[in-house]
Automatic annotation (TrEMBL):
Listed InterPro entries: AAA+_ATPase, ABC_SmlMolc_Importer, ABC_transporter-like_ATP-bd, ABC_transporter-like_CS, ABC_transpr_FbpC, Mo/tungstate-bd_C_term_dom, P-loop_NTPase, Transp-assoc_OB_typ2
Signal peptide range in chain numbering: none
Organism: Yoonia maritima
Domain ABC transporter: 6-236
GO molecular function ontology, one term from the record: ABC-type ferric iron transporter activity
Keywords: ATP-binding, Cell membrane, Ion transport, Iron, Iron transport, Membrane, Nucleotide-binding, Transport
Gene3D superfamilies assigned to the protein according to its UniProt record, in alphabetical order: P-loop containing nucleotide triphosphate hydrolases (3.40.50.300)
Keyword ATP-binding among record annotations: yes
Annotated GO biological process: quaternary ammonium group transport
Protein name as catalogued: Iron(III) transport system ATP-binding protein
GO cellular component, one term: ATP-binding cassette (ABC) transporter complex
Listed SUPFAM superfamilies: MOP-like, P-loop containing nucleoside triphosphate hydrolases
Amino acid sequence: MQAPRLEIKNIVKSFGGRRVVDDVSLHVMPGQVTCLLGPSGCGKSTTLRIIAGVEMQDTGTIHVDGQLVCDTIHRVPPEGRSIGLMFQDFALFPHLSVGQNVAFGLKKGRDVGARVQELLNKVGMSRYIDDYPHQLSGGEQQRVALARALAPRPRIMLMDEPFSGLDDRLRDDIRDETLEVLKGEGTAVLLVTHEPGEAMRMADEIALMRDGEIVQQGAPYNIYNTPVDLKSASFFSDINVIRGEVKGALTETPFGQFLAPGVPDGTAVDIVIRPQHLKIDFDRGGRGPNPTSVDGTAARCVVERARFIGASSLVEFRMDHDGSVLKATVPSVFLPKPGTPLWLMIRRDRCFVFPVG
Ligand SMILES: Nc1ncnc2c1ncn2[C@@H]1O[C@H](COP(=O)(O)OP(=O)(O)OP(=O)(O)O)[C@@H](O)[C@H]1O
């Protein structure tokens, strides 16, 4: 079996007695993009700096293509690790032209010109080869920075929020282009971001980080659809939470019964559902739809507020049974008036049940 391009095992790093990176392990295969995703301050950048070799871990190992690069005794210096870096503020050299910037990390030789041309072609910047960074837009500078980072053919590319300086539309384009170039080069990419949307767009695999630990790791689809806990679910979208208590492995709620296998009697649980997965039905003279095994029992509510937000509308409902407010996103053609009575159902295949605490 092929060795991972990058493998870190049990990395620990403390600052002032606080574990900022707490037993982090992950691997990235060649041509794969892994996103280290988590809120600000959770330890993502420190992990990246340790891999790059500019910070030293307290314990743990780093291997590249099966070879030990760093443990607590051996330490290959940053420049010997075949790692490319791209950071948001990793500026181009202002006094060098585009071509000279891309050539900067290459050993002098006959093929330098060809490699610079090849990369500038790939990022669509070859006609700017003699321009200087100040003559380029932010997006163009980012493309050149990518070409420069890739020029020495690094085996691994570490990227720390590389697109956050760009405006929204441009960012989407540059992300997609960058991904194509990186895949084409077969580089293993570890990308740090605090934006779930960016991670889901870019990653083959997401490592979700919180308080220094990786709490869940997997393909974007799996992380989004099978979160390990309430915090992981809420990191990706707004959520609705319905509190219940377990009795006989079931939780009784106004939306019907929910399975809570293996959860002891008396345990409080949160039933979690994303706003796009609530099912809405019309009021039929004070009655709602009949219960089904997939949708459970409908609970009555009235529309509190409905807002048009483009491709969808965001509707807030006040529940009759306890006055709580639940949120649903619906196709934007559906914009009910405040005060309209409706019925809500919770799809069993779309909700998560987590013990509280
Ligand atoms: N050299 C240092 N000395 C002391 N504390 C540090 C040092 N570097 C990082 N920290 C602390 O470690 C924690 C994690 O920082 P880190 O930059 O790794 O987080 P992050 O997840 O990348 O956050 P952000 O996205 O905001 O950069 C923070 O609380 C930070 O203040």
